[in-house]
Amino acid sequence: MRSVSAAALVFSCVASIASAAPTSAFTFDNDPLHNGFPNPNPDNITNIEQAAHGSLPIAAAAAKNASAKAPSADSLTSLRFIAFNELFEVAFFTSLINNITAGRDGFKMNNGTAQKYLLDGLTAIQAQEELHALNANNGLKANKQNPIEPCQYVFPTTNLTDAIALASKFTDIVLATLPDLQTGFANNGDNSLIRGVGAVIGQEGEQNGFYRQFDKKNKKIPSALPFLTAGTRNFAFSALNQNFVVPGSCPNLADITADKSIAIFAPLAVNTDGGNLMPQTQNVQFSFVASEVQPEWKGTNNDWSGLSLVYINQQNAPISEKLTNVQLATGSDGITISFEASFPFDGVAFGNGLTLAAVVPSNSDISSVVTVSANTLAGPGLIEVN
Ligand SMILES: *[C@@H]1O[C@H](CO)[C@@H](O)[C@H](O)[C@H]1NC(C)=O
Ligand SMILES: *[C@@H]1O[C@H](CO)[C@@H](O)[C@H](O)[C@H]1NC(C)=O
Ligand SMILES: *[C@@H]1O[C@H](CO)[C@@H](O)[C@H](O)[C@H]1NC(C)=O
Ligand SMILES: *[C@@H]1O[C@H](CO)[C@@H](O)[C@H](O)[C@H]1NC(C)=O
Ligand SMILES: *[C@@H]1O[C@H](CO)[C@@H](O)[C@H](O)[C@H]1NC(C)=O
Which UniProt keywords apply (predicted)? Predict the structure, then answer.
């Protein structure tokens, strides 16, 4: 696995930006929520709970019980990951609400009734995500661990339709990941953490049905699949850092990455239609930067023939495809490897909803999402159909 220090920042579509902190990055520094978040006082929390239509759970309070078992180190890493992810989500929905309210270009709504309905929903979601973040950080504090502090963030979207589609995409990634965390909690004997995460899985699923129905021109059915696509903590942590986090802007990223099982993989860009594919079998174009994977990949003289592309979709066995039409181009990042791989869509066994793509050495164990993740050199490429 690659060291986390050189995290690159790429968008899930074609564009990539320089790693210098963009002036437009979202920061919590000037209290943009006007409620003290991420460090609200008890009165602020009462207001957040009202906006969220509900309250923080008792789980963190139970963890304060001195005779209760302390969570394992791996479970604490998962709590840190949850806080890290939820802080990003709060930032995203705050930016989105501000854009709609201010009537920014791309976010203007002409229909006041529809705008109010949307803002009512998003305002509750924003507050609900605040409570998700506070709950994870409360769990850390109750176990005498530092809470996770927010980073600075950039969002690739400049209009409402794209922003809601992106919310659906990162919610899909969260939904892929939370069962991985639950499995970890169970394996670690931290059963008391499982139920609360389950409550959030359903909650995020409700959100996603709303996002999926939002674009009236491209209306999706509310529920994508019978069994949503599986993910791992490292795929999600990589996606967050690759796509949204301004490199170097996280005050205590090291608290998370001190756990050597945590990795930020090299980014794998999906260059066909920003990963939003038509429901058909097709060749898809991908690329990654050679130097990003070279510390682990011992292929010499730019011989990239020993790699495969693996897809993960639903709870099914991962699918391996050959890299075809491999091209090497030298640019400012050094050598970029571009290639194509078949996306064998059939609409039932493979291809609807979220698909994660990863580049792995061809001789890897790819029998499950866990082994694919453990062998990933570049990923996750993010693909959505229907
Ligand atoms: C919450 O925090 C803000 C800081 O933004 C503060 O101005 C406000 O008075 C606090 N109290 C309540 C009840 O929101
Ligand atoms: C504290 O935890 C122990 C062990 O899980 C349990 O038996 C006990 O009832 C708990 N006490 C309180 C006050 O929750
Ligand atoms: C809000 O608008 C700004 C300016 O167009 C844009 O950079 C940002 O990505 C938008 N936020 C979201 C969540 O789309
Ligand atoms: C405005 O939005 C509301 C709620 O979605 C809808 O019922 C109404 O028909 C819309 N009005 C127009 C003029 O489109
Ligand atoms: C939103 O932005 C994307 C990317 O720039 C563009 O392709 C799309 O047409 C825009 N959609 C709307 C409704 O403005």
Answer: Signal
Mind listing the pLDDT tens digit of every residue in the chain (386 residues)? 443 333 333 333 333 334 445 568 999 999 999 999 999 999 999 999 999 999 999 865 566 666 778 899 999 999 999 999 999 999 999 999 999 999 999 999 999 999 999 999 999 999 999 999 999 999 999 999 999 999 999 999 999 999 999 999 999 999 999 999 999 999 999 999 999 999 999 999 999 999 999 998 888 999 999 999 999 999 999 999 999 999 999 999 999 999 999 999 999 999 999 999 999 999 999 999 988 887 666 665 567 788 999 999 999 999 999 999 999 899 898 889 999 999 999 999 999 999 999 999 999 999 999 999 999 999 999 999 99
What spacing in Å lies between the alpha carbon of 363 and ligand 5's midpoint? 41
Instruction: Print the domain residue range for 131.
Output: 6-62+70-254
Q: Is residue 327 part of a domain?
A: yes
b vs e for 200-236, b when ≥16 Cβ sit within 10 Å of the residue's Cβ?
A: bbeebbebbbbbbebeeeeebeeebeeebbbbbbbbb
Domain assignment present for residue 261? The answer is no
Cβ of 162 less than 6 Å from ligand 5: yes
- Output the six-digit token pair for 103: 């009537």
The ligand whose atoms approach the alpha carbon of 159 most closely is 5
**Is there an atom of ligand 3 within 6 Å of 95 CB?**
yes
